[in-house]
Structures are given as C-alpha cells and as structure tokens.
Amino acid sequence: MSANKNFSNTDEMTKNDKITVENLYYIYKDLKLDIVALSGLSTEFHKGEVSLIMGPSGSGKTTLMNILAGILQPSSGNISFLGENVSNWTETHFREYRKKKITYILQSTTLFDFLTIKENFQFAFDLIGKKVEKNYFNNFLDRIDLKNRENYYPNEFSAGQIQKIAFLLALEKGSQIILADEPTGNLDAKSRDNFMEMINKMKPELKDSFMIIVSHDPALMKIADRLFILENGKCKTSQKLDKFSLKTTSKLSSISENEMNERRIQGKIQNTITGLKSLIKELESITIEGESN
Ligand SMILES: Nc1ncnc2c1ncn2[C@@H]1O[C@H](COP(=O)(O)OP(=O)(O)OP(=O)(O)O)[C@@H](O)[C@H]1O
Ligand SMILES: [Mg+2]
Questions:
Q1: Which end of the chain has the lower number of beta carbons within 10 A, N or C?
Q2: Could you tell me which residues are beta bridge partners of residue 20?
Q3: CATH number at residue 267
Q4: Is residue 91 included in any domain, yes or no?
C-alpha cells in the first residue's frame, strides 16, 4: 500500500528525505486573549509518502499547514525541509521556494476563476519558468478524463473535477511539497472515491514529493501511507498505515455519506493509538451493521 519504494523502513531515511517539525508553537495574538494553536508540536513527514493529518476541530491542523506553506511564521520552533533549516531562510528565499516547490490546495482551490484551465496552467508554468511541448495542452487533461475541456473556466467544473485539476497542476508543476486542506470537504462520496482513485494513480510519480493532506474523512486512510493525529496543538500519533490490511481499510470507504458529514461537522476523531484502534473497530461495526440490513 505504501507509495514509498525507496525506503523499506524509516531508519534508512536521512534528514534529506524528510520534513521535520520540532517543538513548534503558534500563538494567535488577539486583542482580548492569546490563542495557542500549536503548543510544542514535533513530527516528521517522509518523502514519497501520502501523509494524512486528522484531529478534532481546533486542534491546529490548518495552522500547521499554513506554517508549512510559509503563510504563517511560527512563534517558535524549528522546521526543516530536506535537511535545510527554514528559520534561517530570508522571506525572499522562502517566497522563491514556495513558488517553485510548494503547492497549497484549499477546499475552494487555488485556480484563478477569471482564467481558463489552460491559462491557469500556463500562468503557473510561466511563474516557475517551465517550458512545455507545443502539443502539451492538447492532451494534458486527458489524464483525469477531462479531455478537450482546457478552454473552460473553473466555475464550469464540479468541485471534484476542480480538485483533480488542482492536483494535476501540482504534479505537472513538479511541486515537491503538495499540501491540501480538506480537499474532499465539498465532495460527495462518489466524487471523493474518484479523487482517491486519481491520487492512487499519481502515487508512482510522487516518490520524490511530500503530499500532506488534512481531512476529517477517515476514508482517505485508504490512500494514505501514514496517519498523523493532532490534539491540542500537538502531534499525538504518527502511524504508518500499511500494517492495516486492505480489507480493513476498504471497509473505511464504505462509511455512509451522512456519517461522513456528521464526522466532518463534529471533528469526531479520537486521538491516540488506542483511539485509532477503537475508531477502526467502530467503523467496522458500522460496515457490518450496514451489510446485515
Ligand atoms: N485567525 C485566527 N485568530 C485567532 N485564533 C485562531 C485563528 N485561526 C485559528 N485560530 C484558533 O487556533 C486554533 C487552531 O485552529 P485551526 O484552524 O488550526 O484548527 P483545525 O484543526 O484546522 O480545525 P478545523 O478542523 O475546524 O479546520 C483554534 O483554537 C482556533 O480557534
Ligand atoms: Mg482547519
């Protein structure tokens, strides 16, 4: 299940194959009170893996993503990208890095709505100085089954198609770090499954990249290599997922859409390894109940 063909175990990885976060704090300074969103978070993300971050609402997931994307500066702590300590970088250096190496996909996507899909791609490629073959644009959307729709505007696609386009763009840009906050948050179960299928197809091309996805949707465990659970601004769990049998994880995707929405709303994810185990049991029992009806 792991996309990581280069490393059979974590020990073989060097710091150059990781994003490392150490003792990270982020405090939102408000007029009335300070809100500690991250309180000493430490963890590491591995190259070639799809990392899934879950955790209750308010646990600091988006704050962490915004820091990784360079949108927020941590109040304290260290981050290193492939062995380079980001806190030593100048703002200009980070901006350049972000432009070339990072794609941040939001629920409402990062595409410009006043540009066609083709123009969006052209714009992104121009920014990083990427040259493409003359006939590139004839077929580029074929990979996600949207052939001949390059001259459409983003609002002429469904939410699921837009997410697929945004991920395709990240891939085509050669982004090393692909961050996505709730990419399936607006999708129904069918579009979500379709999206997951696309990520699975992309996996071989991601072996030199980090894909970090935040979601409340346990079905995404099916495509993730490692699960991180945040709680109260700390990383409580970092768990490789391939020890779970496909049989178990495939049951996760059969969770009903209503249940999925409820979980999204409540952010009802338990937060320790024990919590994770009981979550799987809980989901299995939901599946079994469904099957027997
Ligand atoms: N702009 C802000 N100003 C003040 N506090 C904020 C701000 N953004 C987030 N917070 C607070 O920081 C904490 C972490 O928020 P964050 O958005 O990172 O959580 P999250 O895990 O992404 O939640 P969700 O699952 O609901 O998206 C919460 O207590 C939140 O209220
Ligand atoms: Mg969030």
A1: C
A2: 44, 80
A3: 3.40.50.300
A4: yes
